[in-house]
Design brief:
Blueprint (H helix, E strand, L loop, with lengths): L6 E3 L5 H7 L6 E6 L4 H16 L5 E6 L4 H6 L7 E6 L2 E7 L4 H9 L5 H14 L3 H14 L5 H12 L3 H8 L10 H16 L5 H10 L4 H13 L3 H14 L7 H12 L5 H14 L1
Parallel strand pairs: 1-3, 2-3
Antiparallel strand pairs: 2-4, 4-5
Helix pairs in contact: 5-6, 5-7, 6-7, 7-8, 7-9, 8-9, 9-11, 9-13, 10-11, 11-12, 12-13, 12-14, 13-14
Pfam families: Thioredoxin, TPR_20
Organism: Lamprobacter modestohalophilus
Keywords: Disulfide bond, Electron transport, Redox-active center, Transport
Amino acid sequence: MTDSAHIAAVTATDFEQIVIQGSFERPVLVDFWADWCAPCRQLMPILSRLAEEFKGQFFLAKVDTEAEQALAAQFGIRSLPTVQLFKNGQAVDQFMGALPEGQIREFLSRHISRASDQLLDQARQAMADGDLNAASALIERAKQDDPDNSRVFIAQVQLKAVEGDAAGALELLEHTPLDLAADPELAAIRGRLAFSAAVADAPAAEALQTTLKANPGDNDARYQLAAHQVLAGDNEAALENLLTLLKRDRQYGDDAARKGMVAIFDLLGGSGELVSRYRAKMLSSLY
């Protein structure tokens, strides 16, 4: 285990200086490991590679729990490997086990801002302001400056969607990197694209409501109305219509009602009162 400017083996003697004090200057990732632990040996080279790639945006401290049992006990280490992230003198997050690299990057992204991420934030603001040319230029600059930042791909898909190029967005999504396969932002984009496609040739929302008053069993009309409601931001009404459709016909559109509800959960960030309430209702109707 060769140390570098961004990595060091840490003991009880220098833990305070390197980890606690050091975390006031930059995040410190502490890898609690042991030589007998096979998952530890799988994880360590991934963490080391990321520490070098991030070039000092976080520091990797390695603690051999066999040699530093008191230190491991002090921080409540009960399984190996355990990785804790310290900021401003405190452990603020952790994960256990040898996670895939993509999940580790996602973990780091919650705490570490890359210079290219700032460009991508500016690009998203430009999209929100309707300045798509500026957004495109910022995304391209981020790609050139930091080609390893997987968030660039997400911004590219978002730009295609905002431009109204659904086909282009879907084509990009077909080449989603493996480490982004479960990314919630991309899942939300897929859902919005699916709802947009559902209303492309559909009647207006008011006409669909009239249809449903006359024939509540019109599954196509109910699904299309839910899609209209999502795109208009009325997520609760959309969820209620999809739940009704799910209860009536689980097989409709290859399980479209359940998939639609899950897509809305993704659009809402996967949490919150509305998501919790309708997720429980969905599960109750399924089982």
